[in-house]
User: Fold (2Fe-2S)-binding protein from Amycolatopsis mongoliensis.
Amino acid sequence: MKVEFTVNGDRQDVDVEPRRTLADALREDLGLTGTHVGCEHGVCGACTVLVDGEPVRACLMFAVQAEGSSVTTIEGMAGPDGTLHPLQEAFSTHHGLQCGFCTPGMLMSALDLLNREERPCRSRIREELSGNICRCTGYAGIVDAVEAAAEELATGAEPA
Ligand code: FES
Ligand code: FES
Assistant:
């Protein structure tokens, strides 16, 4: 089936089997391998992308369901000139990643949170990221990073 949608601002036409997941279409048909696939059951959050601004599990959505939608993946997070998003900078500064497998999904979920709430408290950050599983960092650095990025985005200050 032909599907047409926008990914990170670029229009894409893909020919997929109806059973193809959005995660597989992004990774295998469009070469956007930043979206990771861990559990393929909607549990780990590694495949999280934004569809029309809402976070979705790309492993649980069929590519054909994205027809006409605007999809944002981790590849679309940095600026066009490669300048990292404050969240990406903060994950680096605050040691929010170790192996990095969960990181794209963490960043997309964190972006969704900061799109909705200007300065979420630490417990809100933990609550909102509770659907994303990390096997490495113990979460403290991730919460630190999201908190610092929120501060930077709200005030324009450099992250601590
Ligand atoms: S791969 Fe989609 S939630 Fe785990
Ligand atoms: S940094 Fe390794 S799974 Fe999160």
Observations:
- The chain has a mean pLDDT of 96.
- Residues 37-40, 42-47, 57, 59 surround FE2/S2 (inorganic) cluster (ligand 1) (CB under 6 Å).
